[in-house]
Prior knowledge:
homodimer, Sulfite Reductase Hemoprotein, domain 1, 41% helix, elongated
Amino acid sequence: MSLSRKVQVGSVPVGGDAPVSIQTMWDRQVDRVDQDLVSAVNNLHAKGCDIIRFALPNIRAVDTLAPLLNSTPMPLVGDIHFDYKIALKAIEAGFHKIRINPGNIGESWKVEEIITAAAHKGTVIRIGANEGSLADSDHSSPESRSTALIEAAERNLELFEKKGFKDIVVSLKSSDIEVTYLSNKEFRKRHDYPLHLGITEAGPLIPAIVKSTIGLSDLLREGIGETIRISISDSPEYEVLTAKELLFNLKLRSGGIRIIGCPKCGRTQFDTHGFLESVREELNTLPVDLTVAVMGCSVNGPGEAKHADLGITGNGKQVLLFRRGEIIRREDICSAKEAFLEELDQLRREFSS
Amino acid sequence: MSLSRKVQVGSVPVGGDAPVSIQTMWDRQVDRVDQDLVSAVNNLHAKGCDIIRFALPNIRAVDTLAPLLNSTPMPLVGDIHFDYKIALKAIEAGFHKIRINPGNIGESWKVEEIITAAAHKGTVIRIGANEGSLADSDHSSPESRSTALIEAAERNLELFEKKGFKDIVVSLKSSDIEVTYLSNKEFRKRHDYPLHLGITEAGPLIPAIVKSTIGLSDLLREGIGETIRISISDSPEYEVLTAKELLFNLKLRSGGIRIIGCPKCGRTQFDTHGFLESVREELNTLPVDLTVAVMGCSVNGPGEAKHADLGITGNGKQVLLFRRGEIIRREDICSAKEAFLEELDQLRREFSS
């Protein structure tokens, strides 16, 4: 598959030879940009999020969120429906990208005004076609549903192409895995716009992760999909962590911790789940490539842990820490976390230097 | 891919034309079989688990767990390491299947005693080869690691074949996706034993779900894998729900609820996440095929919800309930759960009759 066109969303390139970027969407209404919001957004960035989207349900929301533009290194996307004036305001405020469904903006001249403003300001526009909002989609087969979705996107693209506007990302979203696959695959054959992938309305945590992983893996392995959002009826943090895992496992992204952990079982002599929870924040925000093993079982534990950059395995009241095959520390269980974090910090320094 | 041989694990057939069965492993030490344990195990069954495994670290554990054999419809698997006497005891007690790694049982005569006892009693044996416990596996390439894993399993199989014992399930487990794929694919070409699939040491919830989904999807789509366990450093319930979602999305299993839910976003006017949590137990144990939509957003909500068997969407202080496109109820938000469960129950009765 040839590379897509590349667009620049603030500091983050999307498409072309850029790595697949991770997006999420903020999940609560924002009344003001305070330190809590800034911290939470930057924490998502530390966990692997590249671009974050906010709903802009009205003009006031643009003013409310504008201060965030200078408080996070992440590019901000404004999600806009129905009212073109919100889009104009968001572009003027400096949102790096806006997402619209031209179909619900109304008359062409309104969309044209958005295009003119975006071209002037260098704002990227995502054109989002969504199967759920198609009035007359044919539900007879995945193929015809896919065709309907592509045609909806192409109708939306016409105005942009007429005006020569190219800073576009396209999304073709469905809650159906097959429609998602077919429509994105066919669209990429016809157009070189970067594609934003996601399975929409994927549901609660476990169903959403499973469905999104199946639905996006094949496309991503074929080189289709330049930016992704895993939609989950849960927290943005989980969306980011899932996206990062997906890209990591498909070898499309490096960076971050690889955790090898025992499943819980009746043999476990060390509470791997509790231990992982206790060091989750430190692990998820580590900006280096490391494989960490947290093993609870004398049967498989030591065998797996020896291949990790850092390993910990419990045995009764003691823990053993490994570094690439060598036991480096033996500690009382009470000091396990402290010792582990010391070694992690040591590794981080070695990797960063 | 031709069908595997079929074995009978208690009431559950594994392999041949049987549907792919779901397994989990109990995650805590069991001191006695009380009502809490029985309820928890049967709750896993209601959620979709077909077969459950318990660690049997010593002979006493067999006695402790034996009463459960008559308290659950699920076949029980005993997980045994090192001591062949535990295996003999578990077979005698009526465990429907035992899982051993013949490599750590010791001398051949001990394994032969296990085989003789299992053949007499009709007990299935899973032969589990695990990359983590291979002494000298070659870590140079996925191909050679896969070959080492297959050879370990084949060495283990020799004694069983010599004695003509065929009630075997084989597992080839690795924490590496590619080694898992290659070894199972090649093993199936050489042998017709049912394969138990799983990615071992897959880690905490999100990494484990992503990694297992990627790692097992391709094999399952090729018809390889007759029973699966998703290993997660978390609760067995999550293992079962993930396995069920995986099989459902690959169209390998029907039964159970399909939940279409909005991702949380700043547009949401109805707390879909909270609502889903409040009805999770009822949804996850529903023994019929239904698509349920829980939508929070006026943009995509109604469009998607109209294709569901039952849909709910919020709008300010009211909720609307849909059945296959038609609004059937309009309720105050306070009565949302009650109304939803009434309609769900009505649907269940219609589907069951």
